[in-house]
Amino acid sequence: MIVIVAEKPSVGRDIARVLGCKGHGEGCITGEKYTVTWAVGHLVTLCEPDEIDEKYKKWRMDDLPMLPEKLPLKVISKTKKQFTVVKKLINDAATERVICATDAGREGELIFHYIYDQAKCKKPVDRLWISSMTDEAIREGFDTLKPDSEYEGLHKSAVCRSEADWLVGMNASRAFTLRYNALLSIGRVQTPTLNILVKRRREIENFKPVEYFILTADFGDYTGQWIDEKAEEKTANRIPTKEKADELAAKVKGKQATVRSAASEEKKELPPQLYDLTSLQRDANRTLGFTADKTLKLAQALYEKWKLLTYPRTDSRYLPMDMVPKLYQTLKVLPEPYRSLEAGMERKEDGKLYISKRIFDNSKVSDHHALLPTPKTADLDKLPTDERNLYDMVVRRMLAAFYPAHVYDALKVITDCEGEAFRSTGRTVKQIGWKALYQQEQPAKKTRGKKKDAEEEDTAALPPLSAGDTRTVKKTDVQQSATKPPAPHTDASLLAAMEHAGREIEDEALRESMKGAGLGTPATRAAIIERLLQVGYAQRRGRAINATDKGVQLIDVVPDEIASPEMTGKWELALDEIAHDQRDTQRFMQGIRRMSAFLVDYAKTDAPKVDFPEEMRRGKGGKRTSTVKPMAGVACPLCGKPVQENAKAFGCSDWKNGCHFTLWKDGLTRGGGPALNARIVQLLLQGGPVNGSTGTLQIKDGFVTFEPKDGGAPARMSITYEKK
């Protein structure tokens, strides 16, 4: 008998069906040759500290760091019954071999080997490695089973990742929680990711807008913006004062202008590359508004349940050459409307596709290839809307990769008038190319009646113009504008920052060596973002993800070694090298142990003195008790008593005696306004208004109002004004 261990019951049932196993047992499906059983995600995990040594039940700084020689495993109590089933089957005397059929990746290796080790199994193991859940792919996988020893590097990498996260997370979280008497969660990847959000928040808060003016001249059949030809191209059209802009407008209005130059340059935009998970998550966030976590779950459903996508947790955007025949199979079974779109794909005279290095490159495919639809005909009417939209993105991206380039003529005209230069830009599309696949996709942006930004230059077609042509400046237009702060991070931009964390490293040699080493992996980044939200270090507002005050304070107190992307990027690079048998695991774990000890020592002796306004503290018996923080020097506008802050609001400290002055922290966020913090409330109660980079806040007639700078709709919140 051969026992197959899948990662989930649904995957186990699919494998059993393909192999003809029909007998139903407890937690398994049996057949003549095979018995298929499954995990339910993780069945085995690392022990908690107090399960290793009872002294760790109490959190004491003197007991840190916790550096046990071996991190023992335990069976997860909630799924103990299924573990018992798997253990019995793989150790049965009738079992000749075991097939590892968990997900083909680092986490799948960990799930299987933790079960195998905890069950003390000694049976030989083969590995099923497949990239889609179609019947054909499963059969092919069983025809090409490999000995598990070929994946020993991946197994070691998975264990190192798990133990590194335990050592760093357990020690640092306990040490800093004890140091500040506040529940603080610190993680090897989580904390540097939070640092990215904190850095962006500070850039926005410290941003000081610079006002400038744009002068546009109307030449009748085209327009042009005034430029300073000695300045940098990006800022050449900015005039520092309105007086200067009005002076230039008066100088040229009604005067004759002459075209000095009219240049046309052909430009090409090559098709986008195929999707890996991170690029799919970023695009789904931008175009569909999906969070990274939602996109991963939908892609996983399309892979497991619907069998319409290849393995989604991939970090490659390339295909191996042996995928060419499968690609043709996929194209043959595409449903409408995609079949008709195949006509636009570039083909040779014999009808075959061009094989490009931008698509097919064996050297850039490791465990899994780029995301593709499978060679299974999709019944689009049966797909739920979200799955349908995500499937559409993957199919269009596959087709687009084989479409011709988008080609256009970029036009640039310089028109002189009274010694001043005006720039006009435009484009003429010569070949729509791959963009034909996306013409209907882009939804119109909601502008709330807003005019076109003064900074934007027209890219519409220009009339035929040649040097020496003359026009008259029929009218002029001066628009006020200002430099803008960086936008808050979204799932899309945060994923990009995590993927390319090494770009922020100043050391050029180290930055070069860390190409491809980011924060986390494609499979874990969504969970890291969700974790930051769950522990209160970040919050969503629409699509924006912002660091909270608690998140900012955490970054202020932890050392750079755990907050910067450099160390985590090095670790991810090392884990990848371990997976490819290029690095020693013992040396890696020694470095992790040194870092864990350093973080504890830092918390004990070097961490700065900070009063952590922790929202919820744990009292006796594990009960959660709300805590408040008085705001020094801020008086209630009703009764004059001090104002205090809790997790959700700012209010009067004399509330028990009937003063119900309250400002809710999130009262403006649903209307597009900012969340209130202590500094904003202090300024508001000192008389306001409060001018920020995105708008103005003030208290008026019993309301806090927010007027955005972009001309959008104002937001307001009623203040609770009640007196005994």
Structure description:
- This protein starts with a strand and ends in a 6-residue tail after the last strand.
- The protein has 21 helices and 29 strands.
- A hairpin with a 3-residue loop joins strand 3 (28-30) and strand 4.
- A 7-stranded mixed beta sheet has the order 2-3-4-1-7-8-9, sandwiched between helices. The chain has a 7-stranded antiparallel beta sheet with strand order 15-12-13-14-11-10-16, covered by helices on one side. Strands 22-23-24-25 form a 4-stranded antiparallel beta sheet, with helices on one face.
- It is α+β, with helices and mostly antiparallel strands and 724 residues long.
- It folds into 5 domains: 2-144, Rossmann fold (3-Layer(aba) Sandwich), CATH 3.40.50.140; 162-205 and 493-606, Topoisomerase I, domain 2, CATH 1.10.460.10; 211-270 and 406-482, Topoisomerase I, domain 3 (Distorted Sandwich), CATH 2.70.20; 277-401, Topoisomerase I, domain 4 (Orthogonal Bundle); 624-718, no CATH class.
